[in-house]
Specification:
81% of the residues lie in helices and 0% in strands. It is built from 13 helices and no strands. The radius of gyration is 18 Å and the shape is globular.
Length: 294
């Protein structure tokens, strides 16, 4: 399945750049206003494409399921990701994001769709240990603001893992554009209800102050890590297991950390390196590829 793996690799590269680009955007646009702007712009672009070229629609029952999936995969995922990234660094956010495969495995096990094996148990333990070490639970004077950002990011990972674990069967019934369009539309409505006041204040008072650099980064995030990536993820979900899609996430911190170091001046610490090794080791041990070899 080289086409599927190429698509998943592209997704992770776009997501890796997304951490840096979003950090630039959040310097000019408040987090909740940005969540609404990102998803609304993506939803409207997708709706136009779907109306012109696709024109297939989910059944009433499946639309209800897509609405539920949007709560986890779009609304809660976006709010906690953006609020978390606003308080922590791109590298920390990306490293914590690599726990999504482990979370997906745990949720799949609880749902009866995955079987826990010895290597998977070791992998889960390593990954969780890496997250705890990165969060600085052993350090009494660890920066409280960044720790809160890291915890919000971890909640984002849990919500996205729930989305991956429960959405595959319904998403597989439709083409990627249809699934993505209706998920984004529901997400847009939900975020509008939750964060609409924040967006209105930004649009009225501060939108005119956003720089060209801020708008260019906004365009990138709306088109590539949002519209293109969600579509490619759903296309891949129709062809491979959710855990295979999730395992590609380990590529993100490599891209995000490199950009954060060279463009934002972030310092790579020993704690980050040790945490990354523990998390990557855990992801590798829970990888479906390794399980097939054993």
């Amino acid at each position: 399945m080289p086409g599927v793996y190429a698509a998943l690799l592209t997704v992770q590269l776009f997501f890796g750049i997304n951490y840096y680009a979003t950090k630039v955007i959040l310097a000019e646009i408040p987090p909740r206003a940005w969540a609404v702007l990102r998803i609304a712009a993506a939803a409207l672009l997708l709706l136009g494409w779907h109306t012109l070229f696709v024109r297939t629609y989910p059944t009433r029952r499946d639309f209800g399921w897509l609405a539920l999936f949007a709560v986890f995969g779009v609304m809660l995922n976006q709010i906690f990701f953006i609020e978390g990234l606003a308080r922590t660094t791109p590298a920390h956010s990306a490293i914590i994001g690599t726990t999504i495969p482990v979370m997906t495995l745990l949720i799949g096990t609880v749902a009866g769709k995955e079987r826990l094996q010895f290597l998977k148990i070791i992998g889960i333990t390593l990954s969780l240990g890496g997250v705890w070490w990165l969060l600085g639970i052993d350090r009494i004077h660890f920066d409280a603001g960044q720790r809160w950002g890291d915890l919000l990011t971890l909640l984002n990972c849990i919500f996205f893992a729930v989305f991956l674990a429960i959405s595959r069967e319904t998403v597989a019934k439709y083409d990627a554009i249809t699934s993505t369009t209706f998920l984004m539309l529901v997400g847009m409505v939900g975020l509008g209800i939750i964060c609409g006041a924040d967006f209105h204040r930004f649009w009225v008072d501060k939108a005119g102050q956003v720089s060209l650099k801020g708008w260019l980064h906004t365009g990138y995030v709306v088109v590539f890590p949002t519209v293109v990536n969600y579509g490619l993820n759903y296309w891949a979900l129709k062809r491979v297991e959710a855990s295979v899609v999730a395992v590609f996430i380990y590529i993100q911190p490599v891209v995000a950390t490199a950009l954060s170091v060279f463009l934002l001046g972030e310092v790579v610490t020993l704690r980050m390196v040790v945490s990354s090794l523990l998390i990557f080791g855990g992801v590798f041990l829970t990888s479906p590829i390794l399980q097939r070899k054993s």
